[in-house]
Specification:
Belongs to the complex I subunit 4 family. GO terms for molecular function: NADH dehydrogenase (ubiquinone) activity; NADH dehydrogenase activity; ubiquinone binding. It is a single chain. It is built from 20 helices and 2 strands. The protein is mostly helical. It has a domain at about 240-434. It has a two-stranded antiparallel sheet with strand order 1-2. A hairpin with a 3-residue loop joins strand 1 (about 40-45) and strand 2 (about 50). Helix 3 runs antiparallel to helix 12 (about 205-225), helix 4 packs antiparallel against helix 6 (about 110-120) and helix 17 packs antiparallel against helix 19 (about 370-395). The longest helix has about 30 residues, at about 290-320. The protein is globular and about 65 Å long.
Length: about 425
């Protein structure tokens, strides 16, 4: 099934039509639907292995890639653009499907190459070179301890297969395990390894922001879930307490910073850091409820954050600015856009029945195991998420707008379909939670 989906995507490289490319990627999403099961795990030839988490990430990769192509149909050099997007999609699918940690690491780092091409080739500001440098230094530098840990584990006589390591490895043989997860802390990212993310989001085109928020950040959470299978994280150990304390406190700080942002893209980018702090708390506890909550938050964040970046791009196309002070009055100009913005804002603040609500509820249950202070930090981050989500809606939809924008402010059918295609699974997938 994995090979068939990848084969279909590779065939799309030879397709020149825009509609065929978009619908071909969406068909690949349907190919993986039969693998959705809470009990089964599919092993294929020892090379690929898919459980529920892997299948969810693969489907999300195909789905977000199709929506990226659909939202960027009018972009310049679309043929080259579609090839870069499909290359990113193939590398991500392989990363979420490989059962070998070495192959996962190769795909984990290889996805940076087409992403950098996307930012450099279709970014629209001269500071994108600096953003690319930040991204390279943080991600590549943070992953060096991981490849050292995997190499030392292999030379010690252990296999590189994730499924084999679960039952054959004594978790105590891996020393300095917190140093090895630095690569995933940077990729999530959590405070203080987040500085590359706002710069990359601000300088990237809309498709780059969608794939950064919707897919690339999920590589960090997915790698944490896989690493927790053969690395022991003691709940009350000093490294765990330090990492969780810094990440949660940093999530609170970045949530407060969202209220001080004047750039819409930067605001949505900083909001991702707080959500990823929830994911880190759930995953490193290595409890079934915590892992399930982390997966739900990753899935909900991938859909909601990608939709918000697409919405910001539409506002930028209307006003030629991302400043909140220059994007006002859409409630009068386009009520349909205001409705979609309201739906996305309330989903971002974890309102029922969005996936973010169920994930955060599970995080509160897991956080109660640690201390009251963890619950206070989680509660404050949830409260600030509601504040900056309402800030996005009120700051852009209310107020008096410039009369020159009215002629160009019609909400296109394609833009509405892209935004609603994010919102519907975000609020309907709760029916499949056991």
């Amino acid at each position: 099934m994995v090979l068939s989906g990848v084969a279909v995507v590779l065939l799309l490289f030879t397709v020149g039509g825009e509609v065929e490319v978009v619908f071909g990627v969406l068909i690949c999403t349907i190919l993986f639907m039969p693998l959705l099961s809470w009990e089964n795990s599919v092993e294929m030839g020892g090379l690929t292995s898919l459980d529920l988490v892997g299948v969810i990430m693969v489907i999300l990769s195909f789905y977000i890639s199709g929506l990226m192509l659909l939202s960027s149909v009018g972009v310049k050099r679309f043929n080259a653009f579609s090839k870069v997007i499909l290359c990113i999609c193939v590398v991500l699918v392989l990363a979420f499907s490989f059962s070998s940690m070495f192959l996962f690491y190769i795909c984990f780092e290889s996805v940076l190459i087409p992403t950098l091409l996307l930012i450099l080739g279709w970014g629209y500001q001269p500071e994108r070179v600096q953003a690319v440098n930040y991204m390279l230094v943080y991600t590549v530098g943070g992953s060096m301890p991981l490849i050292y840990g995997l190499s030392s584990l292999y030379w010690s006589g252990f296999t590189s297969s994730m499924t084999s390591l679960l039952g054959s490895l004594d978790k105590s043989v891996i020393a300095f395990s917190w140093l090895y997860v630095l690569a995933f802390l940077v990729k999530l990212p959590v405070f203080p390894f987040h500085l590359w993310l706002p710069k990359a989001h601000v300088e990237a085109p809309v498709s780059g922001s969608m794939i950064l928020a919707g897919l690339l950040l999920k590589l960090g959470g997915y790698g944490f879930i896989r690493l927790c299978g053969f690395v022991e994280f003691l709940r009350l150990s000093v490294p765990m307490v330090v990492v969780l304390s810094v990440s949660l406190f940093g999530g609170v700080l970045t949530s407060v910073m969202c209220m001080r942002q004047t750039d819409l893209k930067s605001l949505v980018a900083y909001s991702s850091i707080g959500h990823m702090s929830f994911v880190l708390l759930g995953v490193v506890t290595n409890v079934s409820w915590g892992v399930l909550g982390g997966v739900l938050i990753m899935l909900g964040h991938g859909l909601c954050s990608s939709a918000l970046f697409s919405l910001v791009n539409y506002m930028y196309g209307v006003s030629s600015s991302r400043l909140i002070s220059l994007n006002k009055g859409y409630l009068l100009m386009s009520p349909s856009l205001s409705l979609v913005c309201f739906l996305l804002a309330v989903s971002n603040m974890a309102s029922p029945p969005s996936l973010n609500l169920f994930g955060e509820l599970l995080m509160f249950m897991v956080g109660s195991v640690f201390s009251v202070l963890v619950l206070v930090l989680l509660g404050f981050m949830s409260f600030m998420a509601a504040c900056y989500s309402l800030y996005i809606y009120v700051g852009t939809q209310h107020g008096k707008s410039c009369g020159l924008w009215v002629s160009s402010s019609s909400f296109s059918v394609c833009s509405g379909l892209v935004l609603l295609a994010h919102w519907f699974p975000l609020n309907l997938l709760f029916l499949f939670i056991p």
